[in-house]
């Protein structure tokens, strides 16, 4: 039994007539009769019985007709579903982002995507850069945006945009009162840093290594940028964070940006996805939106 056999059988069963089924299928009546004989032979069962000039379904024919209707209904349904996915009228997009990007940069982009494709279901996994890359490799997310380098050979990446990291302190901190500070002036201060695997921490440590400076000894390690900001505002220490993360706090006078005359820290933010996996149409549309805003 093949799909063509099943289609011809369904038409004959619907019309209870070989000639009308043939007209519906735009084939000859002998061709229909031949296909039905082949189907009955392959199944070892009679599907139709004839009384006078009328044909009727046998018990086996009734069973097959019930399944045939369901099969072709599912065929129509899957074709509709796939067409909706092709036209981005349906689907799901699982994204991953490291903390700064996920909390401070992506919401606006997600809003734009939602406006263009309101029926695509979105999910966003936010974690540090290392963990997001792991999720990408394990197929938990399809597309990721991360701070820091993407080095795994199974991932490909491209620069999305640049991000400046600045030094912050509490407004009443002695460092906030001084001018023309250098990098060496702050290295002995109590530093608050993100956990290992964070893109922000990786960028700062790489910058020190490039200048042949030893890594700072963290006064405190915290698991989120929000925790870093609260701790700095409370006077517990200083930290480097993305300018995108502190606009409200600086405007409200809760945090102070400490300029350094000899040190500027700019990192790249990357779009990453698996090298060997074809991106879904929903992912490609999101990627196009990101690239449009470059």
UniProtKB/TrEMBL annotation:
Keywords associated with the record: DNA-binding, Transcription, Transcription regulation
A GO MF label: transcription cis-regulatory region binding
Pfam families in the record: HTH_1 (PF00126), LysR_substrate (PF03466)
Transmembrane segments: none
Stored Gene3D superfamilies: 3.40.190.290, Winged helix-like DNA-binding domain superfamily/Winged helix DNA-binding domain
Residues annotated as domain HTH lysR-type: 1-58
SUPFAM superfamilies listed in its UniProt record: Periplasmic binding protein-like II, Winged helix' DNA-binding domain
Family, similarity comment: Belongs to the LysR transcriptional regulatory family.
UniProt protein name: DNA-binding transcriptional LysR family regulator
Source organism: Thermosporothrix hazakensis
Organism taxonomic ancestry: Bacteria, Bacillati, Chloroflexota, Ktedonobacteria, Ktedonobacterales
